[in-house]
Amino acid sequence: MNIIEDLDRKLDQLTKNPTNSCILNDIGVLLYRVNDWENAEKYFHRAYELDSKNGDILFNYALILYKQDKFREAIFIYEAYLKFYEYDKEVIQKLGDCYFMIGEYGLASKMYKLLQRDREGNH
What we know:
Layout: H1 3-16, H2 21-33, H3 37-50, H4 55-67, H5 71-84, H6 89-101, H7 105-121
């Protein structure tokens, strides 16, 4: 199946179950893959409204915000994600980058130091 067929199938599933956060997340992923970031964000946002503790939803929603330079919004979601997955290096890096991009250099440095400490501990 190609992405468009997958998207059609997921949209059909969504009409039958409009409050299924996993289906909404899956649609967001498919839209992300075809570079429709604006609509992907809408589906991730709705999935987040329904399930704000799902790691996949948090990660995907934060990533789409990050990709669109919506750093302040992404920070909020990345921080929520790290409450559940506190040692996710990729998210710590992206959170640091978000802080840096909005001029919060002290907070960015704190995130980067966490990564550095982890690297030094793994030699």
